[in-house]
Amino acid sequence: VSAAVQPARPAADRCPGVLRLHDAGDGRLARVRVPGGRLTAVQLDALAAGAALGNELAELTSRGSVQLRGLPADAAAPLARLLAAGGLLPSAAHDRVRNLLASPLAGRLPSSLLDTDPLADAFDAALCADAALAALPGRLLFALDDGAGLTAVAVSDVALVAEAGTDGGGRHGGGDGLGPVASAVPASIVLRLHLAGAPTTLTVAPDAAVALLLQAAHAFLALRARVDPTAWHVADLPDGAAALAGELGAAPTSGDLGVSTTLGSPLLPPGRRVQADGRVALTALAPLGRLEHRQLAGLARVLRGTGGDLRLSTDRTVTLVDLAARDAGAVAHELEALGLVVAPGSGWEGLTTCSGSGACRRALVDVRAAAAARARRRRPGAPAEHWSACPRRCGMSRDVAIAVVAGGARDASVNAGGAVASAETLAIARDGRPDAQAADVAHALELLDTDPTERPAA
Ligand code: SF4
């Protein structure tokens, strides 16, 4: 969307959590952090119980969190009890700051260089044990990539990315419980520090990774206090990446390190992947990034059958790992029966809506029905697209390529012509610029079909 329709960053950090609910148009919203993206069956059951307090929908966010919507104003206390019992709220003080992305397949792909799961667990435990870090902004995002490039480093503030070392003599973990067993870690594997999505000159051995992330967190807080106490991200500070790198004894580098630092196509679309050990990782897409109560409970049942955990990605997918090849087909059928997409090339990829009709009283059109129609028409690889059922645009990401907003013509920043429009009118914006006005949903679908990259196959 255009700068004209972007909300300015408020001075206060009002980022929601479990204990601090956001007053959204469709009721209170809770954001549940899932550091490293891993959920057990018990945690899925806790989320299902939490969702039942609201509109029974859980949303997977583009930052790897889970949002519960449509909650009553007094939901914080009962929700906190449910999630704490499921291990999803280990520290009330750190509720909103446990923001960590990690490789969904964590060391399992042939291109993976190390297992990031133990590092993610160790970082989260250390973060929650550090009282000063409870002051981090609720949007500051950490990331750990195993070298396979499936972590959204581009959107992170502080990231460590595994790569082969060049000196062949790097230190490596041994006896500290971090990473795979020491004998399986080549001595030349290092993790490179990225700040605001860009690489720096600093690399560390895996056994120094958690300490560096914590050091970066403290350095960010100190820099923020000196320069701009309202900054949410490294990039919010003047020349933030370079300044923070300097505090850590590093410098930005423009070298091509083989890691994507720009937003692009999905990192982890649905489908099967063969792990380095021959077992299978199965990724499924939740249409509209949304899991209903019955789907959460159903996924918990599937996990109890497979014995593993569920891994969220920033593409709003869920992945089950370590499946025996002979079992993967049956598990895929179970996920399909739950309404998840398990094959690549679906029109649901990159398509999102607000809670919309049936879940929000403000909805002017049925965006979920509209999205179902769009999913049948969109080509694989189509640009990201979001439908809002009213001008509030709940859940719309800043970088969405196509935005369709019901009643949006009433918004002067969208309606460049200033024409008076009916409530059902939809405003279409592309790459942040007003593009067209549609009289109704059918007209909007027709207009979107005129885009040569979007037109359905004859
Ligand atoms: S954008 Fe959607 S969810 Fe938000 S208030 Fe409007 S109708 Fe409700």
Structure keywords:
alpha+beta; 9 helices; 20 strands; disordered N terminus; binds iron/sulfur cluster
Describe this structure as you would to a colleague.
The strands form four sheets. Strands 1-2-5-4-13 form a five-stranded antiparallel sheet. A five-stranded antiparallel sheet has the order 3-14-15-12-11. It has nine helices and 20 strands. The longest helix has 19 residues, at 209-227. Helix content is 24%, strand content 21%. Strand 4 and strand 5 (66-71) form a beta hairpin. The chain is an alpha+beta fold. Bound molecules: iron/sulfur cluster (SF4). The site of iron/sulfur cluster has 14 residues, from loops.
Question: What can be said about this structure in brief?
Answer:
With 458 residues, this protein is an alpha+beta fold. Helix content is 24%, strand content 21%. A hairpin with a 4-residue loop joins β14 (310-312) and β15.
Strand-helix topology:
Blueprint: E1 22-24, E2 27-32, E3 38-39, H1 41-52, E4 57-60, E5 66-71, H2 76-85, E6 100-102, H3 117-128, E7 142-145, E8 158-164, E9 189-195, E10 198-204, H4 209-227, H5 240-247, E11 271-274, E12 280-285, E13 290-292, H6 293-306, E14 310-312, E15 317-323, H7 325-337, E16 351-353, H8 367-377, E17 385-388, E18 402-406, E19 426-430, E20 433-438, H9 441-449
Helix pairs in contact: 1-2, 1-6, 3-4, 8-9
The structure holds iron/sulfur cluster.
